[in-house]
Design brief:
GO terms for molecular function: hydrolase activity. This is Alpha/beta fold hydrolase. The protein is of the alpha/beta class. It is built from 11 helices and 8 strands. The strands form 2 sheets. A 6-stranded parallel sheet has the order 2-1-3-4-7-8, sandwiched between helices. A two-stranded antiparallel ribbon has the order 5-6. It is globular.
Length: 242
């Protein structure tokens, strides 16, 4: 298989480094593009469209075809828009604890009002339209199963997230008209989105996909990619297989 792995917010493409190595060890091709405004391309005023375009350009420049396109967290909204642009290159979409906005919604719309208000306060205080992630929120929401040392190590790479892509209302009519196979990979200890039917990753976000394959696993939002990459690679294969 050929995997293209799209990371989420408050991280960069290095999030996938160990998983890419495991997928390659198993004989697959695996790519983890850095997208606009993140990692070495960090830019607070990046747009959602620029992020999507950078992923599309990466896939087409390498002439990748028949791909399993994986989106983690915010990356779910990215692969939705990428799929609109290059559906003929995609074999299956895999949403890994990912946000799946409905047409006309933003990623931020997937959070309860109190969390949206907290983000608004962080944006206002930032001075550059970013959302710096306070460590206590990161610890409890993103790396809640990690050791204290690993949690702090992962947090060191969490640059303030450009806010505009999270707040943008997305036109997703074309995505919801596509007939592409979809899977949702849900880790049951992931608390980055509030647990429960209304806001949680599963069933709230996964349920937006209509027909899909559900794969579940043990882990949280970020820790597994660092601590158990072989396990994550196996779960991605389960989600991607025919």
């Amino acid at each position: 298989m050929t995997f293209v792995l799209v990371h989420g917010s408050w991280t960069d493409a290095s999030f996938w480094s160990k998983t890419v190595a495991e997928l390659k060890r198993k004989g697959h091709a695996a790519y983890a593009p850095e997208y606009a405004g993140h990692g070495s391309l960090y830019k607070p005023d990046v747009t959602h469209e620029q992020i999507v375009q950078s992923v599309v350009d990466y896939i087409t420049s390498k002439n990748l075809k028949d791909i399993v396109l994986v989106g983690h967290s915010f990356g779910g909204s990215v692969i939705q828009k990428v799929a609109e642009r290059i559906p003929d290159r995609i074999h299956r979409l895999v949403f890994f604890d990912a946000f799946v906005p409905l047409d006309g919604q933003s990623v931020a719309d997937q959070f309860p009002a109190e969390l949206q208000d907290a983000f608004a306060q962080l944006i206002q205080a930032s001075g550059n339209n970013t959302i710096p992630m306070p460590y206590p929120l990161f610890r409890d929401g993103f790396v809640n199963t990690a050791s204290d040392g690993l949690a702090k190590q992962i947090y060191q790479s969490a640059k303030p997230e450009p806010a505009a892509p999270l707040l943008e209302k997305l036109d997703l009519k074309k995505f919801y008209a596509l007939n592409l196979p979809k899977s949702y990979l849900y880790f049951t200890s992931d608390t980055a989105a509030p647990q429960g039917d209304k806001y949680g990753f599963n069933p709230a976000q996964s349920g937006h996909l209509g027909q899909f394959r559900l794969i579940t696993g043990n882990g949280d939002h970020m820790t597994t990619a660092y601590a158990q990459p072989a396990y994550l690679a196996n779960k991605l294969y389960e989600a991607a297989r025919d």
